[in-house]
Design a protein that fits this description.
This protein is α/β, with parallel strands linked by helices. It is built from 10 helices and 10 strands. The protein is about 30% helix and about 10% strand.
């Protein structure tokens, strides 16, 4: 997900996580034998620690570069207490690796990631970690995961080397930790890939996912059977279904598909107040993206993947704050409920910013819930109860 600018530096009085991550008590239990359906039920409802470890400045990833404070154990406990069972921790490695051929990740950076993963598990959360903004087309800041390059060898080699190191660090963690290969890889246009180049872009992303799976499995330990999450083109639902190929895997039924959902764009992401309401009754859907569209998109995912034993995680979804809370709550409840009814795992995108066009659900400094009505709506939607979402 693209960042939304944060202009105010968030300050907080909570104690920061401290200590050397390499010395923490990593879980060492063997993986369980949960089925795809059972695993999805465990993950239930998720939340993104967005614009923290994926943030960067002057080509270097930095946890506080975009205005969020350092992540605290108190925040992660608050996320769990609010009803979330899963946390997605987007991570960028821009400026944090050495040169080829080893691409050694800075020990302190990997230590800090491990520290937060440990705190998330201590809070009782499942955790997803990925390689995030390294593929966001921002080449000026060192982005390198490029599906358009004619020569994919350097990209594949670097992706493999990074995942080799990440996998080694977390090889003994149990099934509560999930690896996600990449994030929103595309050609920079956000349009559907077309023609010969389009097929090549699809093929390149599929090949990168295969490198990821092969590298993680080869690291042994619990990684031999760990649940792995792989995206299609730009994590777009339709583009994924059109060109995604599930990687070959030495583990049986341990792959998940990653998609994102921010539709309709004019309501969920466009940074103006032109479309501030949502739903067919409100005629605020720009002619598309209403309730029927949500259901139809999620039904596609259920039919193509879930019914074939492949869990689907909506790794990011949400709507920016346009100060029309009634409609935003309705959107979040409807989309969350539809996702759960189609056996998908919805993971809310939170960027820590609560002003105009922000996504923040929590105050990162205090752990306080900023939009309780929206949180209540999401929890109702993920409860499994049979009810009709009330139209504003």
């Amino acid at each position: 997900m693209k960042r939304l600018k944060i202009t105010a530096l968030l300050l907080g009085g909570l104690l920061f996580l401290s200590g050397c991550a390499a010395e923490t008590n990593a879980p060492a239990e063997p993986l369980g034998d949960l089925t795809a359906v059972e695993m999805a039920e465990k993950l239930n409802l998720g939340w993104n620690l967005g614009n923290s470890f994926d943030a960067y400045s002057s080509g270097r990833a930095d946890e506080t570069a975009w205005g969020n404070p350092e992540t605290t154990a108190a925040l992660l406990n608050a996320v769990k207490a609010a009803g979330f069972d899963t946390i997605r921790i987007p991570v960028s490695y821009l400026g944090r690796t050495g040169d080829a051929p080893d691409y050694a990740i800075e020990t302190a950076w990997l230590d800090r990631i491990q520290e937060v993963v440990d705190a998330a598990m201590e809070a009782g959360l499942y955790a997803i970690i990925n390689i995030h903004h390294d593929g966001n087309n921002d080449t000026a800041n060192g982005a390198w995961i490029d599906c358009t390059a004619e020569d994919q060898t350097p990209v594949q080699e670097k992706l493999g080397k990074l995942w080799e190191q990440i996998a080694e660090r977390f090889r003994d963690y149990d099934e509560r930790l999930i690896f996600e290969s990449m994030n929103e890889i595309h050609d920079g246009t956000y349009q559907p890939p077309r023609g010969a180049d389009g097929q090549r872009f699809y093929d390149n992303i599929n090949a990168l996912n295969q490198v990821f799976v092969d590298t993680v499995r080869a690291s042994g330990g619990n990684n031999a059977d760990r649940w792995l999450l792989v995206p299609g083109y730009n994590t777009n639902i339709d583009y994924t279904i059109a060109g995604f190929v599930l990687p070959q895997d030495s583990a049986e039924s341990r792959l998940m598909v990653s998609v994102h959902f921010y539709d309709p764009y004019q309501y969920a992401l466009e940074e103006n107040f032109n479309t501030s309401v949502w739903g067919s009754a409100a005629q605020g859907n720009c002619g598309w993206g209403n309730e029927d569209y949500v259901d139809a998109q999620f039904e596609k995912l259920e039919t193509v993947y879930v019914e074939n034993g492949i869990p689907v995680i909506i790794g990011e979804y949400g709507a920016i704050n346009k100060h029309q809370d009634e409609y935003r709550n309705y959107y979040m409840e409807y989309v969350t409920k539809s996702a759960c009814e189609h056996s998908l795992v919805p993971v809310y995108w939170d960027n820590g910013y609560n002003g105009d066009f922000g996504f923040a659900l929590f105050d990162r400094a205090t752990g306080d819930v900023l939009h309780q009505d929206m949180l209540d709506a999401m929890n109702r939607a993920s409860s499994g109860k049979d009810y009709t979402v009330k139209v504003p």
